[in-house]
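User: Structure please.
Assistant: Input sequence and predicted structure:
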Amino acid sequence: MYQRILVPVNGSTTAAAGLDQAIVLAGFMGATLCLVHVLDAVNYCNGFETGAIYCGEVVPHMKRTGALILDESRQRAERAGLKAETALFETSGGAIADLVLEHSKRWGADLIVMGTRGRHGADRLFMVSDAEQVMRGATVPVLLVRPSPPAERDARRGADARASRTSASAHG
């Protein structure tokens, strides 16, 4: 059904939840993933550094970090036996959602999967999330994934570790 799944990643647990779900879906469907990272250079400008320091050190550090996030995400997909492409974009105060949507069209995505915190109330009113902006502007289906609550994640990790130890002792 879906053959080209675009997944924005930023190194957060929220984005990781979206990537996890995209990996599962792509595995079932034999789809290719496109992992996208957008760095917003203006977002980290605090006015305390000089322009030379900002351009010579801060922005290059952001690019290296973005490339690392993409590489780690690609490796996760490849460990699951999937083909994954990556794309790193830079904006200076532009809407991240616009770049994601533009690349989705250019790459030919037929599904976008992304993590969301699921803001509501006043937070949602004043801080429209990138996920919501993507959902509103997309011409293809968008799957928004919320990360598991911390207690549920911790319980699952404990169960996974116990299962791994049990499996290892049964085979060893």
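The first strand starts at residue 4 and ends at 8.
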